[in-house]
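Morning F.,

Quick status update on the modeling queue. The single chain you submitted on Monday has been processed. Sequence for confirmation:
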Amino acid sequence: MKIVNSQQEEYKAFLKNIREEKEESSNFAKLVFTVVTAILCAVIVCVILVENNIFLNNLREESAEDMHGVFKYSHASKKGFDVPFSPRRQNILLLGVDSNGNGTDIWEGTRSDTIIVVNIDPKTHSVNAITIPRDSKVYLPDNKGIQKINSAHALGGVNLVKKTLKETFGIKIDKYIVVSDLAVEKVVDALGGLPIYVEKRMYYNDNAAKLHIDLQKGNTVLNGKQAVGYLRYRKDGLGDIGRTQRQQWFLKSLFERLHSPQVITKIPEVLNVMNNYIKTDMSFYELSQYAAMARSMDENKVEIATLPGAPNQRGYISYWILDPVKTQEMINRMIYRVKPQMDGVKFKAGIMYSPKREDDAIALKEKLNDLGFEVNMLKITHLSHTRFVANKNNVTIDFFNWLQKKLPELHNVQFVYDPTEMYSVGSDFTMVLAEQ
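Structure tokens below.
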């Protein structure tokens, strides 16, 4: 990458700083958050509780009653995140499971429509989240054979999911949170709806699955049933990947909603949902610690990604075929925190923009040119949600943070790592300028 004279020394200093950080954290180098759906409701509730000490004081006076035999209100007197309860990184498994119909056990025989591994580093207060497409073709342990990975929960519960992740990807799970899809509807309603930008007209009816989606394009406030439809919609040509992106946008909107002062009045109703539709092996204290960290976390330290691959259909079964090389590269980066080599790297920038953002795109191109980047541009009629996309493994969040200091318009822009290059203009990183 050619850097013009006024910027060359600064960029060299940036690279030098990255090398020093890598040396200082060599022991670690060997190794929210969009949600996605309401799987993070458990954590979100704890965020609210941690922020409202009065409510915590009331909880201390209540009986310590188990939730699903594992969720306890123990140690409620400990608040905040002053001293991490675990100095090492943790992998938290987040599962969103479907329903088998009325009157059935919501935790037995249910498939996991949402699978996310969240890697939390208490030392740096940073979070990496990998979404695993539910249609990913894998071999399930315990002689379950070749299946979509979302079948693991139906065939063997959380334990089989954890075993699959360890044997297939080398990811050891420390804790888990499982949320029934019913929780999405009830939590959104409890919060009084969720403002979100619906990126396209969504219409779909499935009487057998009792799924009815009818959403208009544009800014709207979704109620519970609409939120479920928005998250489950797949008829957009992108299938599971399109839905994964919507899960991430949904999560971002959910966190923004929690900044509303009206949220505190919703706590009792949300807790009731939590009691019935969320299962975890974490204590209340553990959840509150993670939640406190999440609430105080710099958004620029959150990195999200989806395991790369391509759709493939065999007979009547559609699979997501994972790219083995890029998948391993992503796991090394997101879970084991291996920092790629950046010395001598020459990045090429890309800008994808909606027609209404053409002036913004031209202005951004000029600024990137001034920084010494070669820039390719592409106008796309249908683009949703502005974001920064890292197309190459060596485009790190550290680089993004450096770039934000040069370009204030990148502040509060979501960082996404996507090596599939779905959003690429022959570029190493792409700035997507959508109407929203």
